[in-house]
C-alpha cells in the first residue's frame, strides 16, 4: 500500500463523474479543507485518464459508470501507471460483485452516493493515508456471519495480516514462524472459508470485523 500523503502536504484531487452536480458538490466539500483542492474534473473515462496523466493527482474520485471507459478500467490503468495514486470509487451501485474487481484493479475506496458527506470525507481521508475504506453498507451486502469461528486464533491472525497486504515472508517475520508455517495457516484458512485470492481475504476480514474498513 501507499504510505499516504503527509498531513501538511498539499493534496490534489481529480473528480470524474458525468453529473455536474456531483462534481460541484465534491468541489464545495473540499473547498473548506486546508491543503485539499480539486485540480481537475472529468465527465468521461477518457478525460479522467488524460487529466490524471497530465496532472498526477494524489487522489482520484471516480464514478463507476463513467461514459466511455468505465470506472473499473480507469482504475486499472491509473493504478498500473501511477502506483502511488489513491483511487476512490463513488457510486450509486451497492453491488458486492464490483468490489473484488475494483480492489484487484487497485482501488482503495468504495463509497455509495446515498451516504452523507461525512462518509465521503472519511473515505477520502483513509485513501489519502494509504488505507482501504469500503462503505459499510456495501461491505455488508454479502455477510459471512459466524464464518470466522471455524478458524484457529493463528489462522485469524494470518488472515488479518494478509488483509493488510502483508506477504508470507513479512507475516513469518512478524509472527516469528517459518514462511512454510504461514503458508500452511493461510492455505487452511482460505480452504475453510472457500476463498481463493488475497482480495477475497480482505473482503472477508472487513465483513467480519477482523480489520476495520
From TrEMBL:
4-aspartylphosphate PTM sites in chain numbering: 63
Occurrences of domain Response regulatory (ranges): 12-128
Entry superkingdom: Bacteria
InterPro entries per the UniProt record, alphabetical: CheY-like_superfamily, NreC/VraR/RcsB-like_REC, Sig_transdc_resp-reg_C-effctor, Sig_transdc_resp-reg_receiver, Tscrpt_reg_LuxR_C, WalR-like
UniProt keyword terms in alphabetical order: DNA-binding, Phosphoprotein, Transcription, Transcription regulation
SMART domains named among the record's database cross-references: HTH_LUXR (SM00421), REC (SM00448)
UniProt domain HTH luxR-type: residue ranges: 144-209
A single MF term (Gene Ontology): DNA binding
Name of protein: DNA-binding response regulator
Amino acid at each position: 500500500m501507499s504510505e499516504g500523503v503527509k498531513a501538511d502536504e498539499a493534496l490534489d484531487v481529480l473528480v470524474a463523474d458525468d453529473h455536474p452536480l456531483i462534481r460541484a458538490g465534491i468541489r464545495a466539500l473540499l473547498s473548506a479543507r486546508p491543503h485539499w483542492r480539486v485540480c481537475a474534473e472529468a465527465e468521461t473515462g477518457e478525460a479522467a485518464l488524460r487529466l490524471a496523466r497530465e496532472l498526477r493527482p494524489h487522489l482520484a474520485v471516480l464514478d463507476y459508470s463513467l461514459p466511455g471507459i468505465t470506472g473499473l478500467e480507469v482504475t486499472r490503468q491509473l493504478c498500473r501507471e501511477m502506483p502511488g495514486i489513491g483511487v476512490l470509487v463513488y457510486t450509486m451501485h451497492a453491488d458486492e460483485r464490483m468490489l473484488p474487481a475494483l480492489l484487484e484493479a487497485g482501488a482503495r475506496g468504495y463509497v455509495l452516493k446515498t451516504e452523507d458527506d461525512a462518509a465521503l470525507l472519511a473515505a477520502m481521508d483513509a485513501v489519502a493515508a494509504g488505507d482501504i475504506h469500503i462503505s459499510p453498507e456495501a461491505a455488508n451486502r454479502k455477510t459471512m456471519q459466524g464464518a470466522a469461528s471455524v478458524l484457529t486464533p493463528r489462522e485469524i491472525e494470518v488472515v488479518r495480516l494478509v488483509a493488510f497486504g502483508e506477504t508470507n515472508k513479512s507475516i513469518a517475520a512478524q509472527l516469528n514462524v517459518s514462511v512454510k508455517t504461514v503458508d500452511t495457516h493461510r492455505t487452511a484458512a482460505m480452504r475453510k472459508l472457500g476463498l481463493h485470492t488475497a482480495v477475497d481475504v480482505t473482503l472477508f476480514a472487513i465483513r467480519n470485523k477482523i480489520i476495520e474498513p
